[in-house]
Structures are given as structure tokens and as C-alpha cells.
Amino acid sequence: MAATLLATWQFKKAGDCHQNAVAEELRLQAAVQEEARYVYADEAPLAFRVAAASSRAEALKALKDDGRLAASEFTLAEQETVSLRHSAGPGSIIGSDRYLDAQKGYDVPRRLAHEEKNPAAYRLAPDRTMEEGDRWAAWGRVSLAVAAAAILAVMAAASVLRPAAWQFPPSTGGSRRLLRGIDPIPQPATASSDRRRGTQMHLLVAVLLFLLPLLQLAAASNEQRAQAEASRQALRLGAAIVASGQREAFLTQAVTASQVADIHAAAREVAVLYEKDSPAVRHERAVAAAETRHASQLRVMAEYMGRAPSDTDGVSAASVAALRARPEDWPDMRAEQNRYKALADAAGDRGLYLAAATALAVVAEVLADAFLEAGRLSRMGWPAGIAALSIGITAWTVLS
Q1: How far is CA 263 from CA 50, 296, 318, 336, in A?
Q2: Assessment of whether the complete model's pTM goes beyond 0.85
């Protein structure tokens, strides 16, 4: 009894830990999505625009005194850079040179790592919480094994013949205790020879009624753990789709901007291709060449700023996993989530079958007790058949 109660408490603690792990995973993945949205959707596009304008101004700086075209384009790019940076808050990505690389643009993953240091969600460790629940469940299984061993020991003791003096010790006088002679466990060893076989069958049914709840307890714990893991996998998949989608959208937009800049440079070159040579034509060709170099630099910036973060950037493991996920990874993630769901369904089915086996054992127990009390030993085949069916269902459930 004590081992069963201990196992129940241990499995309850395991279930609490598994549910806490789901709650922690929810908070963590929600933080991952929110920070990815803020950095890659709100800050990074503006940072790329500032970096692009600064790069364009730098490319045209050497030509601004050679003609009005370069001077005008240089002024526009320079003013755009200055205005946007001055209008931004000092704590934003473009508010200082903290994240700026003059050749590559802004270090967006490092900015993300800085943003992650504030929310308490990133200090959560759902994996460790899940492992703590697994340790409680392991101790619960140990307690179940002890309880099952005790039940089997009682069954063996009840079946061993004992001296008559050990069966019912004589009273020492005084009033007879109310519960004296009452035994909740059938005793084949003390039963008369004509009732011993029926009592043995009765004992087997009683043992089933003690063992089956233990198996149900283990099945319920397995189902709860699998459900928790399936929920965590679903949360990770959702965060990966959203976060990686934000990063990929920014990278696509930045690469497209570099391609558009290259098209504009080529168009400017074509515009003066058949013009007569003159200082203005030579100046425009020089501007086109500078814009071509600028377009190549934009491509470098786009790939640098939109790169997938890694552990070396100081980004949390949860954000790294979400932001590095690719569409081709999603089927495997869905398959893992479905695998845990299937495990939960299977554990739930086992619990249902064990409940059915327990109900049959209860019917067998009632019939066996009634037939033994009435002395109708010829009808003990009915409870024996029902008990056999219960044992069969239990064995199939455990082995399947």
C-alpha cells in the first residue's frame, strides 16, 4: 500500500514537471517569435536601407566634384543616412555604430543576441524540466515494481501451507476482536481440500485487482509525457516557421534590393552607350561603374545581415534552432511531433484496455466470492473464464 501511494505521488510530480515543461516551452517559443519579428521585420529593413545609403554615398564620394549627377546622388544618399540615423532612438540598431561594419552593414544576429538578454523567458530550460519529470517517473516505476513484488509475495504466502497454530492463533480471553478471522486475501493454504482450487482461482482474481491499477498508473504517466512532448514539438515547429520566415523575408528583400541596384547601374550604362564622348558622358559612365560596385557591395551586405545566426553570435539555442530551420526541415519536425502524438494515443489505448481488464477482474471477483460462499464450486468455471479473458487482455496490452 505504501509503495503504491508513493508511486502515485511520484507520477503526480512527474506529470507536474512535464506540464511545466510545456508551459516553459510556450513562453520560450513565444519570445523567440516576438524577438525575431522585432529584429528582422521592424529593425533590419531600416538598418539595411541606412547601410545601403551609406554605401552608395561612399561609392559616389570620389565623383561628387566631377559633375552634378554624382554630386546630387551623393547628397541624397548622405542626407538619407544622416536623417534616418538621427531620427532613430539611441537604443535601436541604427542609433549607434555598435553593430555597424562599414563593409558588411549591420550585425543583425548580434543585435538579436542583445535583445534576448532582457526577457526572462530565455532563462527558462524546458528540456531540464522535462528531464526532472522523467526522473520522477523513473522513481515511480521503481515504486510500482516494489508494490508488484509485495503483491506477488502475498500471493505466494497465501498459497503456502502453514501449521495449524499459525493459521488462527487462539484467543487469550476477553472479548473477541471484531475483525478477527477476516482476511481480504483469499487463503488457499488454509482452505479445505474441496475448496482449495476455487480459493486459488479467487486469489488469482484478487491479485489481478491489485496489479492492474499499477499498470494503469504507468500507462497514464506515459500518455501524459508523450502528450507533453508532442505539444513541445508543435510549439517548436510553429516558432521555426514564423521566425525563419521573418529572416528569409528580410534576406529576400535585401537581395532583391541589390539586384535592383545592379539593374539601375546597367541601365545607366546603356543610356550613354551610344552617346558621343564628352565630359558629361564620361562622368555618367563613371557613376554607372560606381553604382555597379555599390550593387555588388549591397549583395554582400544582404547576405551578411540576413545570415542565419549561430551559437558564436551569442544567440540562444532556441532562436538558433528556429531561425536556421528551412522549409525542407519542416516535414521531419512534423513527423517527430506526430510520432509523440502516436505514442500518446497508444498509451491512452493501453490505459483503456487495462481498464476493461480491471472491470472483467471485478466481475470475476464478485462471481468467485459468491460461488465460494454459496458452495457452488461447479460454477467456478465462469469466474475462471472471465479472469482468463482479463489476463489475456492484460498480456496483449503489455506486449503490444
Answers
A1: 20, 11, 39, 45
A2: no
